[in-house]
Write the structure tokens for this entry.
Amino acid sequence: MSIMNSISIGQQGLNVHGKRIEIAAKNMANLDTPNYVRKIPVINSTEDISFSGLLNNMKEDVFGIGTIPFLSGGVKYTGTIEDPTPGEKIYSPGHPDADENGFITASNVNPIVDMSDAMLAQRAYEASLGVMMISKSMANRALEIGGS
């Protein structure tokens, strides 16, 4: 893996985990918004690293050198899905969002879950930043060694 690949993976991690933090913040901001449905970020690998995907890569290069193909790795944000957990029904007949029976559906956001998601995303963001900083340091050291 080249230094540029590791910087690219770090940058992908920054983008994805930054989006995770943004979604968790949006969920927590809508904690008391009636009919708001919690969003869950969907994150996937940039390559098929499953066993069948690996076998498919290997069969294309049967006579190649080595047995395991090079996988560059990385992650990508592919959107959000809605949390299927139902929100609590609250009787509030005068509310503008109330149904014909006078009930509103409270937000299904659990602040403890979203706070822990935000903390995990922050730590992953910091780790991705660390990957980029270490890669930059390695590139600088290689330049120093090559220049002397």
